[in-house]
């Protein structure tokens, strides 16, 4: 179209490079297997860690909420969009996280943007891990605070940043709890100790840790037994929790402040009743069915060992996120295509989502995978990996 020639030009380049991707359509529900292009394939690309997207208790809660309260809320939270169930869910979430309060945002992305863009001013400094999620980066872009990026999980560099920024009103150190592309875990106890030494605040994004790490999936703060020592916990309700949304868990004063100043919260309509009711049911499932988290970790151990035994490079992952390193962008996409032919959906991840030269196929096992699913997937990886010379 006239006026968009410059976009067409860029897209042509992506096509030449082999990194252009049409969206993958799922023609079934989101389970351990999905239907893509009419073919039933093993799903290794979803964040549905515990299989909760299709859990009967979540579906029932959502249906009942629609019947009782309708499909939408018609307003932002601060005007006419706060239903009792929103507040009940937030209290339940705060109890679950062992914090004073919690506040739900439309997504994990907007939760990060909402916090970072609202609580810091030009008197403050935000100190962020180099591999933090895009929503943290964008939140930081929106603050007037000074910014310092420390080398990924490098505690010497973090200490240097804390020393260099002494004198700022507030220093906020931000880290992913589990890093989304590599599956490694932040050294949270060391971060907390440094922040206590230098009088800085700590914020952790547990998007990939909620429902995955800690007792009943309470997250990294629980995993490392750091309750009361991490000031802000952010996370998503869209991955292991199986529904949609983001949350901030922390002190009541933070919740109050965000309600009045976090722009994505103030200016965007609240979650439909079905979403909130299903999220509430998800917390009940986490509390009452701990075997789901146990199964997730059993599957994780089995799949990781299988990939290692085949000779794949899987980086520093310690969690259900296992990257299978390939290097070249086009090769990663080819590998993903071959796997699909073999009956496995594992998405290639390329620049700019990861650095150039670090393209990979990212796998995520879930509690819903059977041993047979994982054995079949490993056979597919072996065949495709050998065919492309990756192993
Ligand atoms: N933080 C991290 C670390 C994530 O991986 C994601 C999801 N990609 C988000 C935040 C955003 O969560 P949501 O999908 O709920 O917006």
Automatic annotation (TrEMBL):
Q: Which CDD domains match?
A: KBL_like
Q: GO CC: one term? A: cytoplasm
Q: Which PROSITE patterns match?
A: AA_TRANSFER_CLASS_2
N6-(pyridoxal phosphate)lysine occurs at: 239
Q: Where is the Aminotransferase class I/classII large domain?
A: 41-381
Return the Gene3D superfamilies for the record: Aspartate Aminotransferase, domain 1, Type I PLP-dependent aspartate aminotransferase-like (Major domain)
The organism's place on the tree of life at top rank? Bacteria
Q: Name the enzyme group at the top EC level.
A: transferase
Q: In which pathway does it act?
A: Cofactor biosynthesis; biotin biosynthesis
Keyword terms: Acyltransferase, Biotin biosynthesis, Pyridoxal phosphate, Transferase
Query: Single GO molecular-function term?
Result: 8-amino-7-oxononanoate synthase activity
Q: Is this entry keyworded Transferase?
A: yes
Give the range the annotation lists for the signal sequence. Answer: none
Which reaction does this enzyme catalyse, per its entry? 6-carboxyhexanoyl-[ACP] + L-alanine + H(+) = (8S)-8-amino-7-oxononanoate + holo-[ACP] + CO2
Ranges in coiled-coil conformation: none
One GO BP annotation of this record: biotin biosynthetic process
The cofactor named in the record is:
pyridoxal 5'-phosphate
In which family does this protein belong, per the annotation? Answer: Belongs to the class-II pyridoxal-phosphate-dependent aminotransferase family. BioF subfamily.
What the protein does comes down to: Catalyzes the decarboxylative condensation of pimeloyl-[acyl-carrier protein] and L-alanine to produce 8-amino-7-oxononanoate (AON), [acyl-carrier protein], and carbon dioxide.
Indicate the quaternary assembly.
Answer: Homodimer.
Identification of the protein by name? 8-amino-7-ketopelargonate synthase
